Amino acid sequence: MAIILFDNAVRAHFYPLTQTRAIAGLRMGIATIRERWSLWTREPVYVHTTGYLQQLYESPAAETHLWIDATALPSAELLSALSDIEEGVCLADEQGLIAGKAQIAFESFNPANSLHYFKEVRKYAQARRIQHPWHLTQYNDFLLRQDFDLLVEGRNSQPIPETNRVSQPEVIFIEEGAVVEHCIINAATGPVYIGKNATIMEGSAIRGPFALGEGAAVKMNSRIYGATTIGPWCLGGGEIKNSILMGYSNKAHDGYLGDSVVGEWCNFGAGATNSNVKNTAGMVQVWDEQSGAFIPAAQKCGVFMGDYSRVAINAAINTGSVIGVSCNVFGNGLLPKRIKDFSWGTEGAVYELDKALEDIGNWKKMKQQTVSEAEASVLAFIFAHHSK
Fold it and tell me: Which helix or strand (DSSP H or E) is residue 201 part of?
């Protein structure tokens, strides 16, 4: 038996982050949702998502599996309840199916009718779920602490070099190959996880909870506040607070990034800065692709940036901005709050697909990667269906 994390209609609320990945691929804390379920259960985890994205994920063998809504976060209580269910039984709350055990044809599974696959529906107290992209930053503090405990249990950290000044070293974990010298690390406010072969350069100040992924780097004299996640092979620099960089993205220079979620293969030019609070200190409105309208999000809300997008040097990013997939963003003054997929600048010009793929390939070469056929196919689908 394996776990299958499935997408439902809620995935549209996570635009632009779920244009290029299933909900299970979203990173919060140290891990992605898929990785987190694997850590909790030690079972193989598969993904069921919308048609054009399914090519990015393997399909499981046809047998009985545990089907779980990808927006539901694991907990000891939920796993205890799931351990007692038999085949044909599921758990549900007011929002619908949480998880259930059944043999369902993978290709024909319909998340809109997910309860119909089970002969018995057991009520469960409201599960902890994510519903919008700003929930990723709102849960990041909690999940950084939870993931840290899961990842380091029974393991020993690499020694903390004496050149560093640290508080509460017992909740600082350094993986093999990481380089951390001449830094200030305050783990009194939360645990600090430094991934395999990662680097924190001289003069940087880190305040937990914080995670730095495998192969990632924090540039010299950076100021990183919790709760921040800098994912695998990212570059972090300047001032970053309560933000998530999914992976392979660069925010390497001075400038502020706060209360934001950045996809993969993104780049911030030197001096680029986002606003995360309105001058009125009022509720921030964020574009919701599913409803086609701006909706209230939170009092603090930065930028949500889709994969393969880049912003120019000294860019001034508005509060609660949404930048689509594969955008080359530049313009005068404060940038628009909504920038569509494949935008070239902010005046309505289109970033043509062939040029976009060529430029993405150039960025990938810088990290010894190439554009796969599946990635190109996904981008071609998004380009064909984006609103020009």
Answer: none
Fold of 135-385: UDP N-Acetylglucosamine Acyltransferase; domain 1 (2.160.10)
SS3 103: coil
- Beta partners for residue 244, in sequence order: 229, 261
Residues pairing with 97 in the sheet:
92
Phi and psi (nearest 5°) for 83?
Answer: -65, -20
Start-to-end CA distance of the chain, whole Å, equals 44
Does residue 333 contact residue 316 with C-beta atoms inside 8 Å?
yes
Q: How many residues does the chain have?
A: 388
Angle at 68 between CA 261 and CA 66, to 5 degrees: 145
To the nearest 5 percent, what fractions of the chain are helix, strand and coil? 25, 30, 45
Q: Is 312 in a helix, a strand, or coil?
A: coil
- pLDDT value, residue 1: 84
Q: For the segment 291-312, what is each residue's pLDDT rounded down to a tens digit?
A: 999 999 999 999 999 999 999 9
pTM of the model: 0.96
- In this predicted structure, the answer to whether residue 20 has a pLDDT above a threshold of 80 is yes
Alpha carbons 195 and 208: distance in angstroms, whole number: 15
Spatial CA neighbour of 137 closest among 244, 59, 284? 244
DSSP state of 125: P
- Which residue type, as a one-letter code, is found at position 242? N
| CA dist list (Å): 231 to 27, 157, 280 | 8, 19, 33
pLDDT in tens, 180-219: 999 999 999 999 999 999 999 999 999 999 999 999 999 9
Instruction: Please answer whether residues 285 and 295 qualify as being in contact, where contact means their C-beta atoms are separated by less than 8 angstroms.
Output: yes
Three-class secondary structure of residue 104 per DSSP: coil
Number of helices followed by number of strands (H, E) in the chain: 6, 37
Task: Examine residue 74 and say whether the peptide bond preceding it is cis (omega within 30 degrees of 0).
Answer: no
Q: Give domain limits for the chain.
A: 3-131, 135-385
Tokens describing residue 59:
């399909």
**Alpha helices, DSSP H only, in 139-294?**
140-152
